[in-house]
Structures are given as structure tokens and as C-alpha cells.
Amino acid sequence: MPELTKEAEEATPVGDGEPILEVRGLVKHFPLTRGILFKRQIGAVKAVDGVDFSLAQGETLGIVGESGCGKSTVAKLLVNLEQPTAGEILYKGEDVTRLSGRALKAVRRNIQMVFQDPYTSLNPRMTVGDIIGEPYEIHPEVAPKGDRRRRVQDLLDVVGLNPEYINRYPHQFSGGQRQRIGIARGLALNPEIIVADEPVSALDVSVQAQVINLLEKLQSEFNLSYIFIAHDLSIVRHISDRVGVMYLGRIVEIGTDEEIYDHPTHPYTQALLSAVPVPDPAARDHRERIILYGDVPSPANIPSGCRFRTRCWKAQDRCALEVPLLAVPAEFRLTEGPAAHPSACHFAEEKQVVPPEEKPKPQPKPKPQAAPDAPPDAPPGDEEQDAT
Ligand SMILES: Nc1ncnc2c1ncn2[C@@H]1O[C@H](COP(=O)(O)OP(=O)(O)OP(=O)(O)O)[C@@H](O)[C@H]1O
Ligand code: SF4
Ligand SMILES: [Mg+2]
Asked: What residue's CA is closest to ligand 1, atom 26?
């Protein structure tokens, strides 16, 4: 196995589990071209620009960050929907980016994706049975033809849908139910890792909680490892063991949920946390709100040194000259406190942005999902409210 770089080493999980996935120096640049007949490259959109993290078996790593910071591109690279410009994706120690043919196919089976929008990610002309069973066309070894219908029905049951819905079409389901179909499809090949890209962002709040609960239930049932991408910090805290904060194509801070939410040391994380809505008006008046000025720079024109410096209220000359590495800041190295986690800032300091009584509350944990027997066209209940 290749040696760990310093950054990758710092970003490894703190849990006991062996890493099932390791990402090292992952880069994806999309070329910017000019000209119609004679295209020439004039630059590159640096969507992912040096990402390192590890994922332990059975762990959930949340990835948060503003729109356009490269979250979906990381997800697509992990499931091989995009090819990296550089870097390594190690699945159980083997670099997936160097595999091809059968070996690649075997690894891909174990890393599946759940997409954001259940309204557009399911083919409207296919029945639910065909959608969930489609991966078996590529991997017939997982389910021989005669066994597929039964397996698909089992999967519908596992995600809380009536197995008799197998012949229905996506439009006959609500948003929450469609996302369950997407999850069932993700589970079809018995993967070990699920990359969920904003899996609940398009859903009504009450349905979000149900889908999150389903994901948690499936994780403990099948010992799944999750990469959970979202921009809602409360949801990410609720489901994640560790959280990585992304800015302009890089992870700028990573740690356990307690380290990131209660002891953030990177100014960007602190600003993001200060923007989390606080329901209690009295508490809201007392908390510090950090306003970030200016727009996120273009990923085609990333600032020198620290990429956050154009919006950072603490920026100094050094920040324009030296790229801060994702590492435990020197001042915290000798302490064993929660501030001693990787943060890519030259002047990292602990700042409790959200006072203890105001921390973003985890999502309520309602009872397990809607009754599997509720027909998709039944009168609206919780699960049906988002069926628009
Ligand atoms: N195929 C592509 N060609 C060119 N640029 C791309 C391509 N895909 C993504 N990008 C650019 O890469 C950057 C990162 O995009 P990405 O979709 O990964 O962001 P994101 O963090 O998932 O955003 P959101 O929260 O809005 O989903 C954006 O600037 C985007 O415009
Ligand atoms: S390195 Fe400088 S600009 Fe970057 S986050 Fe830290 S203080 Fe701000
Ligand atoms: Mg995205």
C-alpha cells in the first residue's frame, strides 16, 4: 500500500475501525476551452483540488460546504462517474483509479450512490421493479434472472415499501417514497459503502427525518459505511460520526461531530456554524453571527495561499503566500482536547460559535417509516405531503 502523506494521515478516522476507503490528494479539474472548430484550453475549473479523507467500516462521514464547493464532484469520483485528474481512491487498500475491466467492476459494486433529487433520478418510463433490478443486468452474478423479482420485492420491503408496488411507475409515488426506491436501488448489489449526495434536500422536513432514520436503520442492519453530503449542518451532525468541511474544492477542517460543531478552529467552519438557524429568539439575540463578505471566488481562479483569504476576517500577509495544510495546528498538537483536529488555517483558534444551549438540535427521531401498506395514492399522511 502506498505511504500516507501528512495530510491524509491527519485526516484519517479517529474511530477504531480499519479504513474501508481512503482518498488521497484527489483532484478533478474540468478544462475550460475556447473556439468552436479549434478548441484550445484556456484554463480549468478546479472543482476538486486536493481532497484527503478516510472512512472506517460502519462509519458515517458527513461532507458540508456551500454550493459549488465540489461536494457532488467528490461523490461522482468515488463512484467512478467522473475520472480524477490526479489522486488516489483506495478501497480496502487498492487504488480504484488504476483498475479496469473486471477488477474495476467488482470494486464498483461495493460503492453505490444515492442521488439528491428523487423526482429526476428515476426513469419515469421504467417500473419500480426494473429500476431497482437494473444493476443486476450489469452484475448478473449477484442475482440470477429467476431470482430477481423476489430480490427486488425483498428490497422494497427493506426500505419500507409494499413489495406489491413492484409494477408501479415513479410518478405513482411521493417524494419520500421515491427516495426509498433510490435507496433500494443503491442497496441492490449489497454494497459496503453508500455515497449519498444530498439525499434529503429535496424532501419535506417531516419526510427528511423518516429517510434519515431509514438510512440509520440500514446502516446498523447491513454494517454500511456512508459518505453523507449535505449543506444542512443540523442534519449532517445528526447522522455523522465525523464531518469534513469543504471550501472551493478542498476540505478545510475535519473531525468528529463534537470537534467540528463545539470546537471549530477554522474561520470558515465558524462562519458556517454561526449561520445555523436558532429557533429560540432569546438565544438568537445573544449569539455571535459571523457575516462573510464577498462572493465565493470562481473555482477557475482560486486565490493564492489560503483559498479562503478573500473572505476571511483574520487574513494576514502570510495567508496570501503560504497554502495552509490540513493538519492539527501546532498550538493544539500537545493538547489532547477537542481542538486538536485537522484544520487548514495558519491562525487556527478555537471559537465556540454556538453556545452550548444553542447548539443545532438534532432532527427529531420519529417512529420508523410510514406503513409499508399505505398505497402511493392514499390520502396524504406525513409521507405523502411532498408528493407534488
Ligand atoms: N462537468 C463539469 N464541467 C465543468 N464544470 C463543472 C462540471 N461539474 C461541476 N463543475 C463545476 O465544479 C464546481 C463544483 O461543482 P459541484 O457540483 O461538485 O458542487 P457542489 O458542492 O455539489 O454544489 P451544490 O451544493 O450546488 O450541489 C462548480 O463550480 C461547478 O460549476
Ligand atoms: S489561513 Fe489566514 S485566510 Fe486562511 S482561514 Fe486562516 S486566517 Fe483565514
Ligand atoms: Mg452537489
From this structure: 67
Question: What do you get for the CA distance between the two ends of the chain, in Å?
Answer: 50
179 CA → ligand 3 middle, Å: 16
If you take atom 25 of ligand 1, which residue's CA is the nearest one?
Answer: 67
pLDDT band at 4 (very low <50, low <70, confident <90, very high): very low
Tens-digit pLDDT profile for residues 122-132? 999 999 999 99
Quote the ligand 3 centre to 375 CA distance (angstroms): 32
Placement of cell 432514520 in the chain:
213
Residue from 180, 184, 195 nearest 112 by CA = 195
Name the average pLDDT for the chain.
86
- The larger pLDDT score, comparing residue 158 to residue 355, is at 158
Amino acid at 285: D
Residue of the nearest CA to atom 27 in ligand 1? 67
Q: Is 297 in the pocket of ligand 1 (CB under 6 A)?
A: no
- Pairwise pLDDT comparison (254 vs 293), residue with the higher score: 254
Helices (H), 159-280: 175-187, 205-222, 233-239, 257-262, 267-274
List the Cα angle 199/205/206 in 5-degree steps.
105
Q: What are phi and psi of 334, to 5 degrees?
A: -85, -15
Q: What percent of the chain stands above pLDDT 90?
A: 66
What's residue 8's pLDDT?
Answer: 52
Check if the beta carbon of residue 55 is closer than 8 Å to that of residue 311: no
Q: Which CATH number applies to 1-34+43-110+191-371?
A: 3.40.50.300
